[in-house]
Amino acid sequence: MKIHRLSEQEERHHGFTHKIVVTHADVTGTGATKTLPIFPVSGNVAVGTVVWDAAFRLVTAFDASGNASLTSLTMTVGDDGDVDRFLVSREIHIDGTEIKYDVSAPSTTPYVYTTANAIDAAFTGSASQALDDLDSGEIEIFLKITDLEGLKA
Predict the structure, then answer these.
(1) Are 73 and 123 within 8 A, CB to CB?
(2) Best CA proximity match to 71, nearest among 131, 11, 126, 143
(3) CA distance linking residue 144 with residue 17, whole number of Å
(4) Which residues fall within 8 angstroms of residue 148, CB to CB, at 6 or more apart?
(5) Which of 48, 80, 103, 127 minimizes the number of CB atoms within 10 Å of its CB?
(6) Is residue 102 very low, low, confident or very high in pLDDT (cuts 50, 70, 90)?
(7) What is the C-alpha to C-alpha distance for residues 15 and 17, in angstroms, rounded to an integer?
(8) Which residues pair with residue 124 across a beta bridge?
(9) How far apart are CA 96 and CA 92, in angstroms?
């Protein structure tokens, strides 16, 4: 997984501050689910941080070419308080009807953190199918974040 702080020009043009790139290698695991902390790199989002918006772009649909039973993979983006606070469950596996793009619902953003927490992406595969069979897939998750504490004079 890679986290990129977008340039000021990209931020003005696209409206997002961060891009998180998640590949199949980040999602693999022995179970049918995987929760991946995506922001910040380690630790928690600071109190006073606002998430204004979230979106994703499915670059390459996820697949497990050697496992015909792994036919579904969904993703949500949220935190410990609400797993789909920013992005609701969307299909990202090639064998499903994958969703190429999505944005957060206006009812869930903006959201200000009043307690420290990490922003997570949760991946759920077909029932009883281990995610370690995934061999392709890439998704870009975009966040627009402001640290209100950092705006102090």
Answers:
(1) yes
(2) 126
(3) 5
(4) 48, 49, 50, 112
(5) 127
(6) very high
(7) 7
(8) 33, 74
(9) 7
For 96, other C-beta atoms within 10 Å of its C-beta total 16
Three-state SS string over the chain comes to CEEEECCHHHHHHHCCCEEEEEEHHHHCCCCCEEEEEEECCCCCECCCEEEEEEEEEEEEEEECCCCCCCCCEEEEEEECCEEEEEEEEEECECCCCCCCEEECCCCCCCEECCCCECEEEEEEECCCCCHHHCCEEEEEEEEEEEECHHHCC
C-alpha distance from residue 101 to each of 60, 66, 70, 139, 146 (Å): 12, 26, 22, 10, 23
Q: Which of 9-18, 27-36, 57-66, 83-92 has the lowest mean pLDDT?
A: 27-36
Tens of pLDDT, residues 33-69: 999 999 998 889 999 999 999 999 999 999 998 888 8
CA–CA dist 43, 142 (Å, integer):
19
The pTM of this model reads 0.94
